[in-house]
Specification:
This protein is α/β, with parallel strands linked by helices. The protein folds into two domains: 5-244, P-loop containing nucleotide triphosphate hydrolases (Rossmann fold, 3-Layer(aba) Sandwich), CATH 3.40.50.300; 247-283, no CATH class. 41% of the residues lie in helices and 21% in strands. The protein has helices at residues 45-52, 55-58, 80-83, 103-113, 118-131, 147-160, 177-194, 205-211, 229-234, 236-241, 248-258, 270-282; strands at 5-14, 22-29, 34-38, 62-70, 73-74, 87-90, 165-169, 197-201, 214-219, 222-227. It has a six-stranded mixed beta sheet, with helices on both faces. It has a four-stranded antiparallel beta sheet with strand order 2-1-4-5. It is globular and about 65 Å long. The relative contact order is 0.14.
Length: 283
């Protein structure tokens, strides 16, 4: 099966920058995967996101080598409006993506640009708002919504256009814990129930271990590792070298191992930690 996303040796340098923002990046993503992109600040994570919807190289000034292919489209050749049918991008601060006077108009805007019939637009808008938990908010002003509601509205705007790939650049970083959990629940359901492929940048490692099936680690502009959350977060030396703080349960497990407790593995979720520690206690 052809991968949904394929990057081949991608390097991008912003105009007047001394060094590339990302360098020699290659990976593939299959349909239905939930991929988390992690790395220290300044590693190039947002730049990488912008290559997936064509904003790089079509909107940002700079030079790019290599190729990016999404859903059979070369993002260098296919125009951004056409790419929007296949990939939707939600940025860190959802407020910057919202500009209409009502929630209804906001969600309908993308569908209108796709030239969909009015009945189809109404159907998609209703389904998208219902899915993200904003049904009944159609007449509200987007600026009057809470941060978490605005983030879910931004996802509804993308969802209504029905892309195969959703790119989420730190969708919970500006939210309180309750809002963050609500947003992550929607993202997980998009993947689980609708089969959407998720590519998510985050600094919240607990969310990575809870939801992602695969982790890409970016550091110093390069892709350092690509593996399962279990493998990535069990590699203490790698995390220290790339300045990634592991989930708290991993830190606890490392402390226990250093203290001589015979753990069989490094648990990466709270449930697995509880199970392992109960087994250790009974032993």
């Amino acid at each position: 099966m052809q991968p949904l996303v394929e990057l081949d040796d991608v390097t991008f340098t912003y105009s007047r920058a001394a060094l590339p923002a990302i360098e020699n990046i290659s990976f593939k993503i299959n349909t239905g995967e939930f991929v988390a992109l992690i790395g220290p600040s300044g590693a190039g994570k947002s730049t990488l996101c912008y290559t997936l919807n064509g904003s790089i190289p079509q909107l940002f000034n700079g030079s790019m080598t290599g190729s990016v292919n999404v859903a059979g489209c070369d993002t260098y050749q296919v125009e951004i409006p056409a790419l929007a049918e296949h990939v939707g991008l939600v940025v860190q601060n959802a407020r910057t993506q919202l500009f209409n006077v009502s929630v209804l108009q906001e969600v309908a805007f993308g569908c209108e640009n796709l030239g969909l019939p009015r009945a189809k637009i109404q159907e998609r808008v209703g389904q998208a708002l219902d899915f993200v938990g904003l049904a009944g908010f159609e007449d509200r002003e987007p600026t009057a919504l809470s941060g978490g509601q605005q983030q879910r509205l931004a996802m509804a705007c993308v969802l209504a256009m029905d892309p195969e790939l959703l790119v989420l650049d730190e969708p919970t970083s500006e939210l309180d814990p309750i809002g963050a959990e609500q947003v992550m629940d929607v993202i997980a359901r998009l993947n689980r129930e609708l089969g959407k492929t998720i590519f998510m940048v985050t600094h919240d490692m607990e969310f990575v271990t809870q939801y992602a099936s695969r982790v890409l680690l970016l550091s110093d502009r390069r892709l350092i590792d690509d593996d399962s959350p279990q493998i990535i977060f069990s590699n203490t030396a790698l995390l220290e070298r790339t300045r990634i703080r592991p989930p708290q349960v991993c830190e606890l497990a490392q402390h226990l191992l250093q203290s001589g407790y015979p753990l069989k593995r490094i648990p990466i979720t709270l449930d697995s930690a509880v199970s392992d520690l109960k087994e250790l206690h009974h032993g």
